[in-house]
Amino acid sequence: MTDLHPVIARVTERIIKRSAPRRRLYLDLIERGRDAGTNRHSLSCGNLAHGFAASGDDKPVIRTGAAMNIGIVTAYNDMLSAHQPYGRYPEAIKIAAREVGATAQVAGGVPAMCDGVTQGQAGMDLSLFSRDTIALSTAIALSHAMFEGNLMLGICDKIVPGLLIGALRFGHLPTILIPAGPMPSGLANKEKVRIRQLYAEGKVGAAELLEAESASYHGAGTCTFYGTANSNQMMMEVMGLHMPGAAFVNPGTKLRGELTRAAVHRLAAIGWAKDGQPNEDYRPLGHCVDEKAIVNAIIGLMATGGSTNHAIHVPAIARAAGISVDWTDFAELSDVTPLLARVYPNGSGDVNAFHAAGGMAFVIRELLDAGLLHRDILTVARRDLTDYGKEPVLEDDALLWRDVPASRDDAMLRPAAMPFSPDGGMKLLVGNLGRCVMKVSAVDPDRWTIEAPAAIFDTQDDVLRAFKAGELERDVVVVVRFQGPRANGMPELHKLTPALGVLQDRGFRVALLTDGRMSGASGKVPAAIHLSPEALGGGPIGKLRNGDMLRVCARTGSLDALVDPLVWRERMEPPAPPPPYDTGRELFALFRHHSDLAEAGASPILTAMEGELPF
């Protein structure tokens, strides 16, 4: 067995030491929740009667308290394609629970917004804070104290992080996340991009664009590009919170159903008690999500070219478990993690092609064998992370796991000894403008350094107006400020991707610099994002003026305004643009006003929680 890479060992140890006081307090908290907190046995007769009043045939079992009652927290809605399959999951879960003597109830629903619907629209201002709303909704669902285990039904961008943050407050309960899988492949990704760029140039109309988009996003299941939703599923595998290999099996298949059934059976086996006695195989969520699991999540992101959004979500998930990670940790882990996968937008194939090539089983096995993942984490499976290096199959209708000896497509998936790149492609940039991240796994190395004049904008719509007017036909760093969590909720700026791609294709040297987010599917245009501190409140990005020379360099990790220091010192920050009032964003004013830095997770609720608890 290969020893753990020394850099990974060093970073992990640094995180453990940095987190030690908070982590100990968190573990004490969940131990009290298990032993003396609110649980089903502490409920009064009236409480308990309310809890099982509508449970039909399950009522006698729930009433005795002798078997696990599973709480289902669901993000089902039928507008969001990835979550539409969840509509029928609760009944299937209840049947599977009865097979092992357990019961299940839907504990609650959480919101599940679709960034694909709100992308580039005013509703995107609510997107990031939907994560914290989901965490709060999850806590409300589990506060009824009726449950000894949790099943989380969620897939997409903010939903999985939100479910985890909420569930970790009840970290004494074993928890398994259940995906529903990606939709079958539709229109080829290159063709979709071509039509989008033609539309941005005015060469095709809305009818042609809608036809292409409808052929891309065409059925039930997760979108098939490798953005935040599918990066979530990858992370749940490398953290050991799925049944092994569950991430990318299509909806509606028998294998998908058997993996869900297996998750229910497994959850019933890992509670804190079994047959009235303490369970030696007790696997609470708060112990599964430890420092090593968080490091595995970061390494998985780097090895697969995953979403930049997790530079915000992983720190937030970690904080909920009493663990502190920062972008320096991300950068050092990226430097030693080889890129094993090229999934669109970092390659031509989608997640279905990735899964067919060997998928997560191959990636995890390769990383384990190379000493690049922590094998000895507490997973929800039977052993450790070794179980996740095999893929699920059905043989004679029985669910089995088998080895993936080699990649089935070297253009999609490569071994650690022959990677696409020696590093993971997520860079930390630091300079007189602050700290930010850049994903370069899909960026041509010739464009890792851009030095060009700034064009300053306060909204992405202003950028598109300038593009259509021909004002950006030059080498340029497009600066979009007042996009941070306190300013407007930190929306994704994916709407800019086609226009910036057109400028780059015309031969100009182009980069984006913003205190907002880019899509988790960030692609070929260099984008320095999540800049902290943000413009609102005095971040240096607010001092920039049109024509200032900027240097954005992923090679040296530098981000600087090349402005005379005396001039820079005298500059004043401009006022923030007036906010719109047409989406309900004003309901989230409390969230905006109390959000912290992107590097810490941009979470108002965790900041507030740490004011009440000694974290």
From TrEMBL:
The keyword Transport does not apply. Pathway: Carbohydrate metabolism; Entner-Doudoroff pathway. It comes from the Bacteria. It catalyses: 6-phospho-D-gluconate = 2-dehydro-3-deoxy-6-phospho-D-gluconate + H2O. SUPFAM superfamilies: IlvD/EDD N-terminal domain-like (SSF143975), LeuD/IlvD-like (SSF52016). GO terms for cellular component: cytosol. [4Fe-4S] cluster binds at residues 156, 223. Residues 69-386 form the Dihydroxy-acid/6-phosphogluconate dehydratase N-terminal domain. Belongs to the IlvD/Edd family. This is Phosphogluconate dehydratase. It comes from Sphingobium fontiphilum. The lineage of its organism: Bacteria, Pseudomonadati, Pseudomonadota, Alphaproteobacteria, Sphingomonadales.
